[in-house]
Amino acid sequence: MTPKAGGGRPWGAIRAENLAARKLAETLRRHVDDCGKTLAVLGSDIKVSKAQTGVYLAGKVPSESFIVALIKATVRPELRERREKEALTLREQALRPTSRTAPGTPAAAPGPVYAVELAAAHARQIETYDRLTRALEQQAEVERAKNNSDKLVMVLLNMIRQLDRRVADLAQERDQLRTRPQSEALEQAEWKLARAESQEKRARAELERAEEKQRQAEELEARVRDQLRQLTDELDRLRAGDTNSPLNRLPTLIDELDEKPHSTDPVGDDIDAVLARASAVNDEDNNTLSRVTSELGDNAAEVVQDNPSNPEALDARHNHALNAGEAGDRELAVELLNELIPELTRTRGADHVHTLYARYNHALNVGEAGDRKRAVGLFDKLIPDLDRILGVDHPDTLDARHSHAAHVAEAGDRKRAVGLFDELISHYARALGADHSDTLRARHSHALNVGEAGDRERAADLFNGLILDLARVRGADHSDTLRARHSHALNVGVTGDRERAVELLDELIFDLTRTRGADHITTLYARYNHALNVAVTGDRKRAVELLDELIPVLARVLGADHPHTLDARHRHAANVGVTGDRERAVALFEGLIPDLARVRGSKHADTLRARHSRALSVGEAGGRWRASELLIDLTLDLARILGADHILTLHARHSHAVNVWEAGGRGSALALFDGLIPDLDRVLGADHILTLRAGGYRDAAALTTKLDGA
Questions:
Q1: Residues near 49 by Cβ (< 8 Å), separated by ≥ 6?
Q2: What is the Cα–Cα distance from 493 to 503, expressed in whole angstroms?
Q3: Is residue 85 located within the same domain as residue 181?
Q4: What pLDDT, in 10s, does the model give residues 434-451?
């Protein structure tokens, strides 16, 4: 390879017929290098094609007019005459070389030095071709990022104008509602206004990011364009006059196809979706511009990163994580916050309020992603820091305490949750007042967990007191009041007063239908629990009628495969059987089991429980041996899926033994009960109702077997 005398972009090998021709080519190349013009620009200046220019600069003796034109285009005026004379002299020498061979002797073939130069030139051509291809790809990526930023700026500017109007309208609506007694409508207006103000702030932050990306893309576009020009010229030089070049054309880039692009606040939801998309586009463009800058290797022109030292970038990353979580991608939110928290801790400090907020949202998303126990651990560590830095009665500390208690409850530790809510209620009452909505909601959660922890009577009393306060503060028809009445009725029923529970639910259903509508989920759930309590009072036929009416509504409103619909079908079939219509019950279970297996899976506990109920109905309908066969299969599946000591497995073994007994297999039943009772005693205890019932059957079977033997 023949390098430029002073360094710089290389040339291809020179294939000259004699030493003078080679020296002429080197001289002309040096003039081109000194002027800094590319072969494309030079060809335009001297009115000679780039290809022909390359041939002359590779060793072929050029015409006199080419030399004159090239010298004029590349050499300063004061030096042109001298340089032109030198070049023309070399041309004369190249055309009339000193004879060293007999006339007619052909020119010698290129020597080994030329072969080495040619091979090196070909290798460099391929390398430069690859770099040029990547530069074209970079140009397309930067262009896409620039277009994204241009469009995003326009979208966000329009959104900010809309949000300005929305904030003004919502503020006016709130002010009008403030003249009326406190109502749910006022609470909704205040919530929408706060949300719109937050969205406007996020939109302005995303706009700043998009405008910065716009500027960066424009700068980077110019740098990539310059690199393309340099690489194209370098490849032209390397291919100059090379008829055997491994590359017969410059790379091109295939054009990509353009991508076609029941809520209480649907407008706000749409805005959140657009902001989430804006954040994602900004992140994507930032990554693209960063990668291209890194590949160009120019540290002096770094893209301004959304980096840990940039407060606005950190806030934008936090918002991006929140948007991901709110859009349903909790795992992504957890991952983003996992990366963000160490950077916040390093740049702003562990006690900075933004670090604490990120930790709070991280714990919240970990819980929403399904890992309640890990979320509890994160809250356990966070709350002491919030107490110390913000104060025990700070609203954000109280919110974190509420989330902590809720996650403890959902993780299964109801007793601890009761204690946490008890403490929280005192903090809320002191900081916000006894009648504040947060205090009242904490009281609801507290009463709920008292009931789930086993103290249903106390829970019923707590709900009774809460309902009075809710009706006084928020109104009898407020959703929180109606929800508390529902929970109160359920706990009254579990205490054993089913008749009273039925009365309470009757009254509640009337009010829910009036205020929420017959098809509202809360109304439907109350009707479901009403039917269950009616059944437990002993009025199975009425329960069947209620469920007969409810199931089509559930299927229409929630869907045939919704868990509530499937649960209601199970309860319906079971109650049909208890009324004495065993054959219809069997048919209902036969229709339910395939749907459960399809929707929830054949190994789901609800599917296995329905198979148990079907087998019991088959036995009650007179098919005791058939029921025994079904229960054998079920017991094997239960032991394999849930374990031999699971309560459902033990129940199925008990039902199997009972059906064998009822079918007349006294001896077999005795053996089954003898094998079952030690396991019941070990797992459930000697005083458990199932253990006692199995013991009674065993004693009867033993006596009957003894009498039959006598």
A1: 43
A2: 10
A3: no
A4: 999 899 999 999 999 999
Q: What confidence score (pLDDT) does residue 316 get?
A: 80
Q: Are the C-beta atoms of residues 240 and 33 closer than 8 Å to each other?
A: no
What pLDDT was estimated at residue 258? 36
Q: Quick one: tokens of 565?
A: 């619909």
d(CA 339, CA 306): 13
Q: Report how far residue 515's alpha carbon sits from residue 259's, in angstroms, rounded to the nearest whole number.
A: 45
Other Cβ atoms closer than 10 A to 63: 12
Q: Mark which of 43, 68, 97 sits at the end of a domain.
A: 97
Least confident span in 203-217, 369-383, 403-417: 203-217
Residue 2 pairs in a beta bridge with: 11
- Looking at residue 519, its pLDDT comes to 92
Residues 72 and 158 in one domain: no
Is pLDDT of 530 > 90?
A: yes
CB 365 within 8 A of CB 372: no
CATH number assigned to the domain comprising residue 89: 1.10.260
Q: Which residues contact 533 (CB under 8 A, 6 or more apart)?
A: 489, 493, 498, 501, 502, 505
Structure tokens at 97: 């070389």
Cα distances (angstroms) measured from residue 104 to each of 59, 92, 101: 21, 20, 8
The Cα 560–Cα 580 span in angstroms is: 26
Q: Measured between alpha carbons, how far is 497 from 492 in angstroms, rounded to an integer?
A: 6
pTM of the entire predicted model: 0.57
- DSSP letters, 52-64, are HHHHHHTTPPPPH
Q: Is 11 left (phi over 0), alpha (psi -120 to 50) or beta?
A: beta
Q: Are residues 85 and 162 in the same domain?
A: no
Q: Quick check: 236 and 250 in contact, CB under 8 A?
A: no
**Mean per-residue pLDDT over the chain, rounded:** 81
Per-residue model confidence (pLDDT) at position 310: 66
Task: For residue 662, give its domain range.
Answer: 639-710
Q: Which residue has the tokens 């006596």?
A: 703
Q: Do 278 and 196 belong to one domain?
A: yes
Ramachandran area for residue 646 (φ above 0: left; ψ -120 to 50: alpha; else beta)? beta
Sequence-distant (≥ 6) Cβ neighbours of residue 416 within 8 angstroms: 408
Q: Could you tell me if residue 493 is inside a domain?
A: no
| DSSP string for 35-103 | HT--HHHHHHHHT--HHHHHHHHTTPPPPHHHHHHHHHHHS-HHHHHHHHHHHHHHHHHHHSPPP-S-T
Angle at alpha carbon of residue 119, lines to 117 and 125, rounded to 5°: 100
| Domain endpoint, select from 70, 97, 124 | 97
Residues 455-476: tens digit of each pLDDT: 999 999 999 999 999 999 989 9
Give dist(CA 700, CA 695) in Å, integer: 9
Q: Is residue 235 part of a domain?
A: yes
Domain membership of residue 172 (yes or no) is yes
What is the per-residue pLDDT across 329-340, written as a single tens digit (0 to 9) for each? 889 989 999 998
Query: Maximum distance among all alpha carbons in the chain?
Result: 140
In this predicted structure, what is the pLDDT of residue 353? 87
Q: How many angstroms separate the CA atoms of 631 and 654, rounded?
A: 10
CA end-to-end span of the chain, whole Å?
Answer: 115
Is residue 56 over pLDDT 90?
A: no
Interval 470-506: pLDDT, tens: 999 989 999 999 999 999 999 999 999 999 999 999 9
| Pick from 441, 435, 460, 367: nearest CA to 399 | 441
Task: Please state, in angstroms and rounded to a whole number, the distance separating the CA atoms of residues 602 and 595.
Answer: 10
As a whole number of angstroms, the distance between CA 411 and CA 374 comes to 9
**Is residue 87 domain-shared with residue 162, that is, in the same domain?**
no
Top-confidence residue, 255 or 112: 112
Pick from 247, 220, 218, 250: nearest CA to 233: 250
Which tokens in the block code for residue 156?
Answer: 């966000």
